[in-house]
Write a structure and sequence with these properties.
CATH architecture of the largest domain: 3-Layer(aba) Sandwich
Shape: globular
Strand content: 15-25%
Distance between the termini: 42 Å
Largest sheet: 7 strands, mixed
Number of domains: 2
CATH superfamily of the largest domain: Type I PLP-dependent aspartate aminotransferase-like (Major domain)
CATH class of the largest domain: Alpha Beta
């Protein structure tokens, strides 16, 4: 029988993530027509709850894209960067680099400003880059999934706006686990997705759009079709998607967002993620030779990255992964691109622990206890 050999692992990676049983069961709810009245029964509460989780930012509308968070990021590039614009892609890790790649492969006039792995965006360096490149649009990550760095979106957007540019934010791995600050930062577009801190399967990109973004998009040629935010918005205002959605995921999303807003509550969810960050930080202090990788004061509440001691290698982290599998867990041995670069300069790798979505503090403590024992066998 298909599925008999599928492992039931507890996922402590940075996405996809562990699903609550109720979310799994919601996948059995009836399918529906996405242009039928049944659609509104799902999407009206989904849109309302997304706004609540976002802090009810004034003037913003949630839009759901079929695909992943990357689809939403590419839509921001296709719809909000014109051929005459300069876009500055600010990066503190692999997903900031991805934003730059999306700009380049779409033929945009793209510049990149990179910061060292594990570090946040330095405001003074950003100021100088803004003066040098004079960009029209600036992209950056709210929460860098490859390193566990959370950037100060409000302060960064203030700098960008002060130089006459417009910001776009990648909030893929933090939305639903911490405040998004959309109302305070006022980006053109804030992008996220389902398979991270919202505790859902992959399948939808989610964006928050304002009128300023639509006005900007009107001046951009060749926005594509599914990447055209104006076309997407026309359906979002009707509480629909532009193209046929994954009905199973819609049902799961309706159930999960109701749980987040009306049962756990948004504030309690954010506090739980902060508590798990503190648990991970405390655990690092008990591990001889292991260090927190992300800059102090800018550590993510949804995931934590750890720097390994000199004796650890990429291959050994892969061994750790298989040993953790034997204990019923899926371990994250770090982002491949970053660890390869660290190895090339003779440095030890990092690994990541995802503590987002519906992972509970007690679950994280149990996982870290097992992980500590496994890592200890390599000392």
């Amino acid at each position: 029988m298909i599925g008999e050999d599928f492992a039931e692992l507890k996922l402590f990676i940075t996405g996809p993530i562990l699903l609550r049983d109720e979310v799994r069961q919601a996948g059995l709810l009836p399918e529906f027509g996405h242009r039928d009245a049944e659609n509104s029964k799902r999407f009206v509460p989904i849109m309302e709850n997304l706004l609540t989780i976002a802090g009810n930012p004034e003037g913003y509308t949630p839009v759901i894209f079929n695909g992943s968070g990357t689809n939403a990021l590419e839509a921001s590039v296709r719809s909000l960067v014109s051929d005459s614009d300069t876009v500055l892609n600010v990066s503190v890790g692999a997903f900031g680099d991805l934003f730059h790649k999306l700009a380049v492969v779409n033929g945009k006039k793209a510049m990149q400003l990179r910061f060292p792995y594990g570090k946040t965006i330095d405001p003074e360096v950003l100021e100088e880059a803004m003066k040098e490149h004079r960009p029209d649009v600036v992209t950056f990550t709210h929460n860098e999934t490859s390193t566990g760095v959370e950037n100060d979106v409000v302060a960064i957007c203030e700098i960008i706006r002060a130089h006459g540019a417009q910001p776009i934010i990648d909030g893929v791995s933090i939305f639903g686990g911490a405040p998004s600050f959309i109302d305070e930062a006022k980006p053109l577009m804030y992008c996220t997705s389902t398979q991270k801190s919202l505790g859902l399967p992959a399948g939808f990109g989610i964006v928050f759009l304002c009128d300023e973004a639509l006005e900007k998009a009107e001046k951009v040629a060749n926005r594509g079709y599914t990447t055209d935010i104006i076309a997407q918005m026309s359906k979002a205002r009707l509480k629909q998607t532009l193209t046929t959605p994954n009905g199973t995921l819609v049902n799961q999303m309706c159930v999960q967002l109701d749980y987040i807003v009306n049962e756990e509550t948004v504030q309690a969810r954010f506090q739980r993620h902060e508590k798990m960050r503190d648990i991970a930080v405390k655990w690092a202090g008990t591990m001889d030779g292991y260090e927190l990788f992300a800059q102090e004061g800018y550590r993510s509440p949804t995931m934590t990255s750890f720097k390994t001691p000199a004796h650890m290698t990429i291959d050994r982290l892969k061994e750790v992964k298989e040993l953790m599998r034997e204990h019923g867990y899926l371990f994250d041995p770090g982002y491949g691109k970053i660890n390869k670069e660290l190895a090339e300069v003779g440095d030890s790798p990092i690994f990541r622990v995802g503590h987002m979505g519906d992972i509970m503090p007690a679950m994280l403590e149990e996982y870290l206890g097992v992980l500590g024992s496994v890592l200890g066998s390599f000392s």
